[in-house]
Amino acid sequence: MAACHGSPVTKQRRFPTKFMFGAATSAYQIEGAWDVDGKGESIWDRMTHMSPGFIEDKSNGDIAADSYHNYKRDVQMLREMSLDTYRFSISWPRILPTGMPNDINPAGIAFYKNFINELLKYKITPMVTLYHWDLPQKLQELGGFANPLISDWFADYARIVFQNFGDRVKHFITFNEPRETCIVSNMFSSFNGSAGPEPFNKSTNIVNYLCAKHLAVANAKAYHIYDKEFRATQKGQCGITVSVDWYGAHTNSPEDKNAAELKRQGEWGIFANPIFSTDGGFPKELSDRIAKKSAQQGYTKSRLPEFTEEEKALVKGSADFLGVNHYTGFLVSATVNKLENHVPSLADDIDVGLIVPQEWPKSGADWLTLTPNSLYNILHQLKAKYNNPVFYITENGWPTTAEFNLNDDDRITYYRAALENVLDALDDGVNLKGYMAWSLMDNFEWLGGYTQRFGLYYIDFQDPARTRIPKKSAFVYKHIVNNRYLDHTYQPESMTMTIDPGH
Ligand code: GBH
C-alpha cells in the first residue's frame, strides 16, 4: 500500500543481506606473545624495547590483549555481536622469524590455522591482512622499505601465506595503510618499516618516496602470485587497504579547491592511483610538483622515483578491491595554517594548510573528530576517480581516553553517523561490500600506547586475564547487524551478552 493522506510512512533503508559486517584488529596490537613459540623480533618489538620514550605511556605490545592465548574468546565476541567477518593480520615474523622463506616457523603456521578454523567453525569469514606494520627486524636491518628487494621478500612471504591459508581464507589484504608505513612513520620519528627504529631513521624525505614505489611493486608482485598460482584453485580475492581521510576545500576559491585536490593526491592518490587509475603511475599534478621542487632543491632526479613502463604495467590493476580505512576529515586551505619549516618533505611538496572547525565533535585522540558526512564524501570521490571498484570499509572507529567507561555514547553516535553514510553510499551506487569496525577490542594504539581505546569490548590492561567486557556500542552494533537497519534510538535493555541462535 502506498503511503497516503500525509501518513509519515517512509521506506526503511536496509543494509543488503549479503553486506559483510565485521570488526578489525592487527597482530601487534592484540596478540602479545612477542617472543613465544619461535616468533622473530619485529621492528615494533625493537623500537618499544629500545626507545620506550616514543610511546605515550612507555608501554609495548609484549602482552597487549594476549589474543595469542585468548583467540577463542575473541571469536566468541564476534559471535556475541552476530558479526560475519573478522579482519585481522598475520605477523610476518611469527611465520618467518628472520623475514626470509628458508626458515618457516611451524608453531606460527599452527597458531593461525587453529585460529582460522575456529572462525570457520562459526561461519565467520576471515579477512587477512599480510602486513600491518610489524616488519621482521632482520629486514629492517637490510633497509626495510627503502630497499627495492623488499618487493621480493614480501612476495616470498605472501606465497607462503597463500599456500598455507588460502584454502580457507578468501579475502587477502596485502598492505594496511601504505601512507602510514611510508610517510607518517617518518613524521613521528620512526616506525612501521620505512625508516624504522633509530639508528635506521635517516633521510626521511628520500625514504618516504622510495617506500611509496617499492611498496606498490611489492603489492603487485604478491597480487600476481595470487592471480597466477592460487586464484584458480582457491577462488578468493586479493586487495589492498589505503587510509582515506576526507579533505574538503576550506572555501570555494579555485586556490582552496586545488589545494584540497593536491592534498588528496598526496594523502591517498599516491598509493591508490598507481593501482586503481586507468593511466597508472603516481598522480600527475603531484609528481610534476615534486619533480619541480626537487630540481629547485638541487637534486638531479625527482625525489619521487617514477615507475618504469614495465613496473607501471605490473602495478596497474594489481588489486581485486580497494580497502578503505576511514576515521576523520579536514578542510584544506591554500593560504591559512601553512607550514613554517620548509625542509624537503611530502608536507612541503604539497604545502597546504589544514583547518578543523570548532563545531566538529572531538574524540579521545587529537587527530580525530566526527567530521560530517566524511565517509560518504570519500566513497563518492573514490568511486568517481577510480571507476567504482569493489570497496570494503576495512576500518572505521572512535577513540575514547584510558578511563573505564562502558557507556560509550559518543562512540555510538559516531558509528551511527558512519553507517548512515554507508547507506547513502549504497544508494549512490558505490560498490561497497562490507564494513569492519575498528576495533573488536581495546588494544595497543601504537605511539598512543594504552592511552586511547577504540574497542567495542573493554580490556583492563592491568588484569592478567585480560577479561573482555562488552561496551554499550557492542550491543548497538549487534542490533544494527541483526536487523539490517539503523535504529537511532535503540538502547540495550541490559549489559549482558548472549549468543543468538545461528551464530
Ligand atoms: C589506523 O591508522 C591503523 O590501521 C590502526 O592500526 C590504528 O589502531 C587505527 O587506525 C587507529 O589509529 O597521534 O597525532 O601522532 C589510522 C591512521 C595514522 C591515525 C597515525 C593516527 C597518528 C597521529 N593513523 N596517526 S598522532
Automatic annotation (TrEMBL):
This entry's Gene Ontology molecular function terms read: beta-glucosidase activity; galactosylceramidase activity
Catalyzed reactions per annotation: a beta-D-xylosyl-(1<->1')-N-acylsphing-4-enine + cholesterol = cholesteryl 3-beta-D-xyloside + an N-acylsphing-4-enine; Hydrolysis of terminal, non-reducing beta-D-glucosyl residues with release of beta-D-glucose; a beta-D-galactosyl-(1<->1')-N-acylsphing-4-enine + H2O = an N-acylsphing-4-enine + D-galactose; beta-D-galactosyl-(1<->1')-N-octadecanoylsphing-4-enine + H2O = N-octadecanoylsphing-4-enine + D-galactose
The record ties this protein, via Gene3D superfamilies, to: Glycosidases (3.20.20.80)
Ranges in a coiled coil: none
Pfam families, alphabetized: Glyco_hydro_1
UniProtKB keywords: Glycosidase, Hydrolase
Q: Name one GO biological process term.
A: carbohydrate catabolic process
Give the main EC class. Answer: hydrolase
Enzyme Commission number(s) from the entry? 3.2.1.21, 3.2.1.46
Family designation: Belongs to the glycosyl hydrolase 1 family. Klotho subfamily.
UniProt-recorded name of the protein:
Cytosolic beta-glucosidase
Species classification: Eukaryota, Metazoa, Ecdysozoa, Arthropoda, Hexapoda
